[in-house]
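Format notes (please read before filing issues)

Several people have asked whether sequences and structure tokens are stored in separate files. They are not. Every record keeps both together, in the order shown below: the sequence lines, then the token lines. Line labels are part of the format and must not be stripped during preprocessing.
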Amino acid sequence: MEIQIDASVRQCWPETRLGVLTFAVEVQKEAPGLAERMASCLPSLRARMEETPFASWPNLAESRAAFRACGKDPGRYRVSSEALLRRIRQGKDLYQINSVVDVNNLISLTSGFSLGSYDRDRLEGPLVLRCGREGESYEGIGKGSVNLAGLPLPADARGPVGSPCSDSPRAMITETTRRCLCLVYGFSSRAALEAAVAEAAEAFASLSGASDMRSRIVE
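Then the structure lines:
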């Protein structure tokens, strides 16, 4: 699938990149082994949250800064990785959706990057990461109407399909999904993004049964 980064985002944040993973998968209600993997990560995540404010959290800090540079207040429009970390800090359980979305959220937590996983067969034409335009909105998954103006977001021939803040239901992962596109929204170094992509590829393969895995960096 052709994926590009529009100049409108680069002008706001030159370090913008996308980690791209595509894979085949049979989506299950739960990801075997995910609970154990999550339990092993939580103590270190909680310890880091005690010591490091989110504004200084690696990869999350750069994402927050990129939101602000594009014209969006990261205090009102939370980067998805921050929203997940805040749930943990509040002692709340994470949402359990399905074997792909739950792994997606795991890597958001451990890497600090926002990840978005989409049903490849519900996307139309090339995908472009651009800044949201005035008047653009969609109903975010579980969030109501999302004002997209100023958000960096992927759009296909039909318009915006997601963002590092909240995704649209149009291409969300369901148990009918067979081909997945995962985007790692990168606003920090290429090396950090490459590490997150490798981590995500391993987790999707080992925990959600992903096969025919392919990955690349778009910049």
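For reference, the curators noted about this record: Helices lie at 7-12, 34-51, 60-70, 80-89, 99-111, 190-208. The beta strands are 3-5, 17-24, 114-119, 127-131, 137-140, 144-147, 152-156, 159-160, 179-186, 211-218.
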